[in-house]
Structure formats: C-alpha cells, structure tokens
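PROTOCOL LOG
Step 1. Enter all chains and additional molecules of the complex.
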Amino acid sequence: MSQVYVEDLPQHVGNEVLIQGWLWNKRSSGKVRFVLVRDGTGWVQGVVTPDADSATFELAESLPQESSLRMWGTVRADPRAPGGHELLVRKIEAVHIPQQPFPIGLKEHGVGFLMDHRHLWMRMRKQVPILRIRDSVLWAIREFFHQRGFVATEVPIIVGTAVEGTTTLFSLDYFGQPAYLSQSGQLYLEATCAALGKVYWIGPVFRAEKSKTRKHLIEFWMAEAEQAFLDHQGNLQLQEDLVRYVVESVVRCRARELEELERDATKLREEVRPPFARITYDEAIRLIQGRGVPIHHGDDFGAEAEDALSQEFGRPVFVERFPRKLKPFYMKKDPTNPQVVLCADLIAPEGYGEIIGGSQRVDTEQELLEQLGEDNLPVEPYGWYLDLRKWGSVPHSGFGLGVERVVAWIAGLPHIREAIPFARTLTRLYP
RNA sequence: UCCCCGGUAGCUCAGUUGGCAGAGCAGCCGGCUGUUAACCGGCGGGCCGGAGGUUCGAGUCCUCCCCGGGGAGCCA
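Step 2. Run joint prediction.
Step 3. Record the structure below.
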C-alpha cells in the first residue's frame, strides 16, 4: 500500500491508507486512544480501539512525543476530529522511538529556549504553516518573473566591492585579499541585465548591522530584479504587480495555512487591491509631521515614521523621490529636480516596514563619477561598474524585495525570526 | 552602541517586610470506550546565572560581570 499525505485524506474517505509521520500528541480515554500524527502536510488524528491488534493498542498508549511511525487505517469524515477527517487505525508500526522526552512541550515556551531549539521547534504547530507560506512566496516570485520573460540569474556572494559603504559588511580573508559577503546583488544584476534584458535573482545577503528589532536579520533573502529600458514609473508598476501577485497567490494556495495562523486572508486581499498609494518624500514628511511624529525635511524615516505611514494608508504605500543625500550613489537624479532621486521605498501595511527599495539607475559615466565623488567613494573598485555606462548604456531600473518581511506580513508574524528556517540574529549563530 | 525588562525544577512561572524552596506542565506509576494543548489520583525532581559585599540570617538588599528578551538608530 502506498503512502497518502494528510492534506490529501479528504480524497480517500472510506479507503484504507498508509500515513507516515511523527507523533505530536496523544490522548486516551482508556479503551479509545487518539494518536495525533503530522507528516509535514498536515495533522491527523488516528483512533485506536481494542479492535486493533494488541501491539498497536499498546503503542497508542506508550509511544512518546515525536516518535516516527507508520499508521494504516480507514479514512472517515467525523466532525469530532480536528480538521474534519480521521483515521480508524488498523495497525501502527514504530519507526523510531525516542529514549528521552522531546524538549518542546505543547505548553508555552520562552523565545530564548525556542531559538536554542530551532531545529526541533520548526516541527511545531505554527512553524510548519509559516515555512509552507514562505515556500509559496518564493514560488510565486519565480512564477511572476518567469511569466514576464525575466531570466533567472545569479550574483556572487563573495565580493570585492562594497555596494553601499563598508561599515555594514562582513569581511573575510580571500587568500590574502580583503573580501566581503554581499549585501546586495544589484551592481552585478545591472551587468547581467545589459546581457539578458530582464533579469532577477533570489538569494541570501548579509548585513553586519547591530540591529536588534523585530524587522531585522543579519542574513536575509532578497529578490532583486533589473530591467533595461525601464523607467521609474514602469519600475513602480512592476513592483506593485509583483507584490499583488505574491499575496494573491499565497492566499489562494495556502488558505489552510493562513487559517491555522489565524491570519485574515480577506484583509490581505483588500490590502493589495489596486492601486497602491504613491506619495513623494516631501508629502510623506508633511503627513508624518501631521500625525505628531517629530521629523524634519532631510531626515530618513525611523520606525515611528514608517508606522505612521502604514497606519495612514492601511495598504502598501510607495514613497518616491527621496533627497539625493539620503540615498546611494547609483540612483538617478530627477531631471526636473536634481535635489531628489528617482527612487521609491514600498512600505507594507500593519507596521511590517519597508519591503522594497528600488530606483532608476544612473546611466551615464559622467553622472556616476559625480555621484561617487559626492559620496566620497573611491572610483577604482567600481571600474567594471563604470564600464557598463561606456558601451550601450540604457535607462534601466530595478529593486530589491526583502523576502522575510513579506513572509512576516503575509503570515502576520510578530517577529521576522520565524519567517526563515534558521534565523541569523545579532545574538544567534547556533543552531 | 544606547535605553528598558528578565535569569528560581526539563519547560512556563510564583516566592509577602530579609526568616524551612513552591505551583502548573513535561517524566514515571495507576484510572477512564470520543479525546480536542483531554481529564482524575500518586511519585521523583533545585549550585535560586556567576563573583564579591551588607546582615545573626540573602532567591529577596548593594556592586561588578555573563547570558537572554523588548525597543531605538541603520536598513529590506
């Protein structure tokens, strides 16, 4: 008999099936014993009565939490069963019986303890749906770009050039040369873009910032895209389409997981209804000031300012055209106002923070040299990047999306550390 | 780096004005024919984060250190 996954059980009502998984809880009422089994796709209750053979009846009482097992039984719908379906068990076979109690109980635990046991915590009731939602987010991003003719490509993780200054880089010794872990694939993606036209990549990036908040990870995943002949306005439309596609896709494919997390899918769908709000930096400053948050023109947004914007709109909002001096050297100045650049940050609703940063890029060598100078950056390490403006330079734009922040928003998580299997935070390098 | 909170049983926590170290859960033993983080009875379980100090006496008060959590700045 071949294995059936828990999520497919409704299609097998009345049939005997084999479930292979792990025991996550059990209950007994003497002569009726319940074994709750998970297999990665869901949770199902097996009902064991004395009608099963005596070894099976005994196992239903004695197996400890997180025993792995095979369970044969007949599927039936029953309103008393969690999830609506259960298995009338004929036989249980233990695959591995733990010799000591599982560290993670079914009661509450502290954050420190759970993070110390992340490799085991991820098996638990809320963590599984989160990781399944993450899978769908990444899958939807790939699907979106593929449908639009973007070419999936890759960038180096070990780099010799800093993208945005060296203070937040992890440095390493590359056979005697200084090297860094990449904090963004953007510069390389611009090169690839001139070869392939429309490109994207998804991968880990690293920031050695001593950030200690619910929105920051030291190692996080970015989805970055770059398109030739795309201007600022087109860039915003592309980002909006992507975010809407991802949310709608997750709401459709992971409805059960969202429900398990008590996340309101209707609210998510409302939030991404077109169009997203768009305001300029200048408007944003006035709006934030109007909400009583102390901020001056020329300041970057703090957490309080972001939350104010988030509350004001209740849906994603693009903040466009930041002052040049707040943004990195590669962003193109607005031809109608060289004090600002053609960029935008996308602020998520519900206080989940900035989920995308993007811009139209500088496309002439002269401007690029000027802006490197403005930021007191050396020209030499950017030689190859300047080359891109020497041969067939075109207007082009791109952006980077923070995968974990999007997962945290969609799943409604209180902290970003649960949005990735193994979070690297300021205090955690293990497990 | 700065500000705030915490560290007591495997886990979550309580511990009064300084006066014998506690509960729930987990574990083990027993009971229960539909449980829903099941329930009921019993049993075992402690370097009170570390070092110093005050005191007749410190889990409790003081100093320093270590570790964790929340927030800020910076960012996606």
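Step 4. Note key features.
Chain A has a mean pLDDT of 93.
Residues 232-253 of chain A form the longest helix (22 residues).
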